Amino acid sequence: MVDVTLRDLGEYVQAALPDAVLEMTMDNDELCLIVERERIARILKFLRDDVNCQFKQLMDVCGADYPEREERFEVVYNLLSLTHNRRIRVKLAASPETPVPTVTEVFSSANWWERETWDMYGIFFRDHPDLRRILSDYGFQGHPLRKDFPLTGYVEVRYDDEVKRVVYEPVKLPQDFRTFDFLSPWEGIQEQLPGDEKAKEQP
Question: Where on the phi/psi map is residue 140: left (φ > 0), alpha (ψ -120 to 50), or beta?
Fold first, then answer.
């Protein structure tokens, strides 16, 4: 059953910020607000400070990639109110060319969450105090959670004993040792398996 109080809360926020909240949805009994990108800091500040909201904790900032869309990314903010025992999800659309305003001045925990989103998706957060990679290595190329990122990556990393340091090399996929036996799912099972002829031999 849909939580009526959550729906009422969504309508309350939408009425309070009509120029910032584009849409309100209830998905699987969870309240989700789709908002205007440039007003994200104002929206989160309202959700944090308003007496009827009091979403004091930013639990997560993450991304989602939809390459078929004009603005391919969604930035998702998950908030928690311990006072009212409620959660809310806030979403906005972005693209590699459209930076998202940072919310580090509203929630200090957003610092690392936004760095992770930048690292994994390449979503740029404008005015972030220290926007650099946080999960991948300094020399890493690309953003691994994008749908168009190759499964093998762009470079491989190894320690070279000769130069006594970590080296980065283009990914190589040698095929020399790839052999397929009769159990290969690509070739299918043969009628007579290798070794079957021995069963017919008499001692």
Answer: beta
pLDDT value of residue 62: 95
* 3-class SS of residue 86: strand
Quick one: tokens of 151? Answer: 């499964």
**Domain spans, the chain:** 4-136
- Count of alpha carbons within 13 angstroms of residue 138, beta-carbon side: 2
Long-range contacts made by residues 121-125, C-beta under 8 angstroms, separation at least 24? 121/63, 121/65, 121/73, 121/145, 121/146, 122/96, 122/146, 123/63, 123/73, 123/75, 123/94, 123/96, 124/96, 124/99, 124/100, 125/99, 125/100, 125/101
To the nearest 10 degrees (0 to 180), the angle between helices 4-16 and 40-49 is 130
CATH of 4-136, one of 3.40.50.720, 3.30.460.80, 3.30.450.40, 3.40.50.2300: 3.30.460.80
Contacts of 108 (CB under 8 A, 6+ apart): none
pLDDT for the residue 1? 42
Interval 47-99: pLDDT, tens: 999 999 999 999 999 999 999 999 999 999 999 999 999 999 999 999 999 99
CA angle (13, 16, 17) in 5-degree steps: 85
Give the position of tokens 């929206």: 43
* pTM of the predicted model as reported, rounded to 2 decimal places: 0.78
**195 SS3 class:** coil
10 touches 53 (CB < 8 A): no
